[in-house]
């Protein structure tokens, strides 16, 4: 339910590949319909929600525009949804753009000069904005003014352009890439955390009601447990399970139906998909658990290095199935257990394991 439209970083491909294909037009319309419209409907992110509620209520009582807001966190956790809620709570229009779309200061000046008083400007993936535009944004956020340069060379002239008060809502999946001068100009900064299974079950039950789908608690729990802590994934898996229940069952989503449907879409009990398992199987079966270089691992699974590093690895590391070390990628004991395999050092007498197994033993202990 609470998710955003982050699509500029490779990590955003994580959700799309989980269901095997991008959402069609109908699915995109459904996603929009499932978005909560105000803070009271927004599930999870309790601290951010409470803090943001105070910021917005105080601004409304003063009759002023809200402070600039920076939202950070992984794709699919609700950054775009919160930006739309901010606009609704402030009863203001919203303008949506993204950092990669602003490559020149003139691009930003054109957007800023057309804003209405009190309007919300949502800037997705703000860390990918060009440096000249970023420097122009400093003055716009602080003084509501920009200097437009006319002409070139010694004859260039800076024309000051006054801007109406507005609220910038920036979203980023990589907050560490934001320069301090930009980060410090936001009056409120909220970090979006991954959801726990109980919160995802609430998301799924609400979405099922909006989709007019009957689902029992066990079915919702099964989908929640495979959703990677991300509401966007939970909603997409719910729609795929709904399709399976409609075509091959009586339309009611139970635990058994959810398990069967997600098996068809190659999503296992921990939320790993085909690529995740391919990376783990190559690491365990071909390289004895590592350490192995990223490029070698990518070749083994037939993917680009960037795909393995930016799409598969973050979730595997977060799940404690893979570790990044100076010597290369190494599987953890949990990875061996998840795939039902026996680590090389445990397969025979001490000292008889493979070289890769010894490498892992040296990193993780006996």
Automatic annotation (TrEMBL):
Its main location: cytoplasm. It is an enzyme of class 3 (hydrolase). One of its GO terms (cellular component) is cytoplasm. ATP binds at residues 34-35, 76, 79-81, 142-144, 185, 195, 232. It comes from the Bacteria. The RuvA-RuvB-RuvC complex processes Holliday junction (HJ) DNA during genetic recombination and DNA repair, while the RuvA-RuvB complex plays an important role in the rescue of blocked DNA replication forks via replication fork reversal (RFR). RuvA specifically binds to HJ cruciform DNA, conferring on it an open structure. The RuvB hexamer acts as an ATP-dependent pump, pulling dsDNA into and through the RuvAB complex. RuvB forms 2 homohexamers on either side of HJ DNA bound by 1 or 2 RuvA tetramers; 4 subunits per hexamer contact DNA at a time. Homohexamer. Forms an RuvA(8)-RuvB(12)-Holliday junction (HJ) complex. HJ DNA is sandwiched between 2 RuvA tetramers; dsDNA enters through RuvA and exits via RuvB. An RuvB hexamer assembles on each DNA strand where it exits the tetramer. Each RuvB hexamer is contacted by two RuvA subunits (via domain III) on 2 adjacent RuvB subunits; this complex drives branch migration. In the full resolvosome a probable DNA-RuvA(4)-RuvB(12)-RuvC(2) complex forms which resolves the HJ. This is Holliday junction branch migration complex subunit RuvB. It comes from Streptomyces venezuelae (strain ATCC 10712 / CBS 650.69 / DSM 40230 / JCM 4526 / NBRC 13096 / PD 04745). The gene is ruvB.
């Amino acid at each position: 339910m609470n998710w955003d439209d982050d699509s500029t970083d490779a990590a955003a491909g994580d959700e799309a590949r989980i269901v095997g294909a991008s959402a069609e037009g109908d699915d995109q319309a459904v996603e929009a319909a499932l978005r909560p419209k105000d803070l009271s409907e927004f599930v999870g992110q309790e601290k951010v929600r409470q803090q943001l509620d105070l910021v917005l209520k105080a601004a409304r009582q003063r009759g002023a525009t809200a402070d600039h807001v920076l939202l950070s966190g992984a794709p699919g956790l609700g950054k775009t949804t919160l930006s739309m809620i901010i606009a609704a709570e402030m009863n203001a229009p919203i303008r949506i753009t993204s950092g990669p779309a602003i490559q020149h200061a003139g691009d930003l000046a054109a957007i800023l000069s057309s804003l209405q008083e009190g309007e919300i400007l949502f800037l997705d993936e703000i860390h990918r904005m060009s440096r000249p535009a970023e420097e122009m944004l400093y003055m716009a956020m602080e003084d509501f003014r920009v200097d437009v340069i006319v002409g070139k060379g010694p004859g260039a002239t800076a024309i000051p352009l006054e801007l109406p008060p507005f609220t910038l809502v920036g979203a980023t999946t990589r907050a560490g890439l934001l320069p301090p001068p930009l980060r410090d100009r936001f009056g409120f900064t909220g970090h979006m955390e991954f959801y726990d299974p109980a919160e995802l079950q609430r998301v799924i039950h609400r979405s099922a009601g909006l989709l007019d789908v009957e689902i029992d608690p066990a079915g919702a729990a099964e989908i929640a447990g495979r959703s990677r802590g991300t509401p966007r994934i939970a909603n997409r898996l719910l729609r795929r399970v709904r399709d399976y229940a409609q075509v091959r069952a009586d339309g009611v989503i139970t635990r058994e139906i959810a398990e069967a449907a997600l098996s068809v879409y190659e999503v296992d009990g921990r939320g790993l998909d085909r690529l995740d398992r391919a990376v783990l199987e190559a690491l365990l079966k071909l390289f004895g658990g590592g350490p192995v270089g990223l490029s070698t691992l990518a070749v083994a699974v037939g993917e680009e290095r960037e795909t393995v590093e930016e799409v598969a690895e973050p979730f595997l590391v977060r799940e404690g199935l893979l570790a990044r070390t100076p010597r290369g990628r190494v599987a953890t004991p949990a990875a061996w257990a998840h795939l039902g395999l026996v680590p090389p050092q445990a397969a025979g007498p001490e000292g008889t394991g493979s070289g890769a197994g010894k490498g892992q033993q040296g990193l993780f202990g006996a």
